[in-house]
Amino acid sequence: MRISHKHKFIFIAVPKTASFTIRKCLNPHSDIALKIIHGGKAHAKIHEVRDEYFKNEESKFTNYFKFAFVRNPWDRQVSRFHYHFKDHPEKSFKECFMDSFTAPTIQSDWLTINEEYCVDFIGRFENLQEDFNIACDKIGIPRQKLPHLNKSNHKHYTEYYNDETREIVAQKYARDIEYFGYKFGE
To answer: Per-residue pLDDT tens for 115-131?
Structure first.
């Protein structure tokens, strides 16, 4: 999470949505960088840390421009696979997915407090530069070309799925798919 009192913004960094790149670009304009541990048991701390900050700083929270980015859940799963298993090329997507691969958290969980959305703008990974430009305009910082950091080289995400794994993602991320309007193959 990045916070700027000067520019009155709060950026909520959802994992595997170019959040590392966006945080790097926002760092010079940020006053506070809250580190929220995610993954495994530690992930539960995201709501605790964010909610506690917002509770203590409620007036700032309601007056600041809050934004985040989301990504197609099927594509996000493939990105996470390549990130976590890049040093184990012998493992197939299906093998990791079905046996030991822990799916990333539901994106809407990062963007809600008490099941209510708490952001003013949700950009899309699929429109990353254009949506980042919108956020820059809203918070009053110069637009900048986003570098492509943490890039993994892989085939189009649709090539990793069979009917079974595609349906598992559809069920696990049904809320994200419905709310953000994602479809497989788009």
So the answer is: 788 899 999 999 999 99
Q: Quick one: tokens of 104?
A: 């990333």
CB 102 within 8 A of CB 40: yes
pLDDT at 74: 94
DSSP of the chain:
-EEETTTTEEEE--TTSSHHHHHHHHGGG-SEE-----SGGGGGHHHHHHHHHHHHTHHHHHHSEEEEEE--HHHHHHHHHHHHSTT-TTS-HHHIIIIIPPPPPPHHHHTEETTEE--SEEEEGGGHHHHHHHHHHHHT----PPP--S------GGGG--HHHHHHHHHHTHHHHHHHT--TT-
